[in-house]
Design a protein that fits this description.
206 residues; six-stranded mixed sheet; alpha/beta; 40% helix; Rossmann fold
Length: 206
Amino acid sequence: MKRVYLVRHGLTLANEQEIIQDAQDPLAARGIEQAKSLAERFSKIPFDTLVSSDLPRAMDTSNIIAQKTKHTVENSPLLREVPFPSALFGVLYHGPKVEEYFAEQRAHASDPHYRFGDEETHQELKARAKAAADYLASREGDVVAVSHGLFIRKMFFEIVFGGALSIEQEQHAVARMLTNNTGVTVFEHRHDRWQLLTWNDHAHLG
């Protein structure tokens, strides 16, 4: 039996400005403080392996944890965020361009291979989420994995429902499942089966 702690990275500058972030979006000052609080928490939780998305905001969060716990960070592109089309980088999250993107996603919800721009398709994301879950299950001992809000939800759908949810059901659920910055979601994995213990625990933020 092992535990996997899925962690969202700290608050970023784009999160603060409520704009679509690109791959290089850095932690904000508040995000650094959140990561320090998270590191203090994990200094009291025994674990064996620290892994991270290879995007800077996740790596910076992981490195802050590692400084406190003395773990070595292993990074993987499997844990990267669900990407928006690059044409939307820097655009207001609740602006008309993003609303158009979401409307097009809903209109093509029956097509798992639909692509608005240069982002991953639904089918590609499902495959990556399954590969990420298998990767975490293969790491040694208990694992802390720093990833991203949307991708943690994508992994949740894959782990808990085995990929059985329709695209429409996932779209409906995503907007109703909050993932706070540095929120911790905990799974147990035993005998090739996953169990959800905790969703989005951010008590370390007060």
